[in-house]
Amino acid sequence: MAFYEVYSHPALIRYKTNVCTRATLFVLMVFCLTYIPPLLVAYKSQGFWLKRSTYEEQPVVQFQYQMLMIGATGTAGEFVAWSTFPDFNRLLGSNLRIPAVSVKEEDSNQDGKSDRLRLQLSVPLKAEEQIYSIQLLLTFSYQLFRMSTVVMQSMAFIQHSSSVPGSQLFINGDLRLHQQIPLPHRGLHAAYNVSVVETGSPFATSYDLASIIRAYQARNCKRKCLYVFVYVCVVN
User: Fold this and answer.
1) Do 38 and 153 have their domain in common?
2) Are residues 96 and 207 in the same domain?
3) pLDDT tens across the length of the chain (236 residues)
4) Which end of the chain has the smaller Cβ count within 10 Å, N or C?
5) What are phi and psi for residue 20, nearest 5 degrees?
6) Number of domains in the chain
7) Contact yes or no for 143/151 (Cβ under 8 A)
8) Residue range of the domain that includes 167
9) Do 47 and 135 have their domain in common?
10) What's the pTM?
11) Has residue 195 been placed in a domain?
């Protein structure tokens, strides 16, 4: 039996509502929970499946106002010396020469961290004395905070010699961190926050520069090694 269409009428139904409804709020919440938390997790975790990454940080470096200076005045072992360590100065006897010292730490960009150290030493000499070589040791406090919290005592060692005596020596250098292990990202790493020089010791061996540098560079390298050294440019 065939069927015939006898009447048709199209129906148009429209539903209207305000934008500020619970349904709109629900959609916005779902959108935020879908995209924002993964982005925050990726940012805080330094990325997903990260194998290797690098970052730069300006350390907080403070001069400790500890110095040890030795100048050779001849080829037969004659020398003059001075330090900020009273016990070492007492061991020098007639070889002690107390210099005029000027120290200034500069913060070029006003960020609260010292960018440059200006140090000037003027050593008084006798009329017959001339300087052929100079050794200078300076100590610093070195701190990192951005990724790892590291506090350590570091040093700068400067050495220069010449076959002819000199009256002035200019040094320009940068402190750099030498690292052979990953730093811990939790807690305080202060294993090397000890004095570079054994202050208060009455023995001359405690102020031997070769021993100080050897112990400084070793720093328990069987397990980990972390120290700061200085690159210098010398002009005399």
Assistant:
1) no
2) yes
3) 677 788 888 888 887 778 788 888 888 999 999 988 888 887 777 666 777 777 788 889 999 999 999 999 887 788 999 999 999 999 999 999 999 999 999 888 888 888 888 999 999 998 888 999 999 999 999 998 888 888 989 888 888 888 888 888 888 888 888 777 777 777 888 888 888 888 878 888 888 888 888 888 777 554 455 555 554 444 44
4) N
5) -85, 80
6) 2
7) yes
8) 60-235
9) no
10) 0.73
11) yes
